[in-house]
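Structure first, sequence second, as always.
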């Protein structure tokens, strides 16, 4: 997938959907090994969290918890960039802490222009899709993690 900007590992985000419906107007995504979650505009993250039944975490309203018993029934999140489709299941985008507490693997962060708005695809994405950072050819490569 070609980089859309060399300033960061940025790609053009074509679509971000749940149940076939768009849940984001943002057109940029960056891949970041230093970010644990998926992070995006606060207003969009709050809408997505409500859509999947996640509740604000009392210590930080930009992070969310989710009922562990509902993970298997959560809708898929589908991202498309570079003509490729990447699907994250409920198990992929939640962090299950020994079935005691489950965290929604998404947090709100508002990156100001000109860099943002954007989505940061951190470990939640990279755990499922091996990511090759090819600076020489100014592109990213992806493969499902075995």
């Amino acid at each position: 997938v070609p980089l859309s900007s060399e300033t960061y590992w940025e790609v053009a985000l074509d679509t971000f959907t749940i149940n076939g419906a768009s849940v984001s107007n943002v057109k940029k995504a960056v891949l970041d090994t230093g970010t644990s979650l998926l992070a995006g505009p606060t207003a969009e993250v709050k809408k997505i969290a409500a859509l999947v039944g996640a509740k604000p975490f009392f210590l930080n309203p930009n992070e969310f918890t989710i009922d562990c018993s509902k993970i298997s029934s959560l809708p898929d999140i589908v991202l498309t960039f570079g003509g490729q489709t990447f699907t994250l299941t409920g198990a992929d985008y939640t962090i299950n802490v020994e079935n005691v507490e489950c965290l929604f693997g998404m947090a709100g962060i508002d990156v100001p222009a000109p860099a943002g708005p954007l989505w940061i695809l951190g470990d939640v994405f990279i755990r499922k899709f091996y990511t090759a950072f090819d600076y020489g050819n100014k592109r990213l490569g992806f493969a499902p993690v075995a």
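Margin note: The mean pLDDT is 94.
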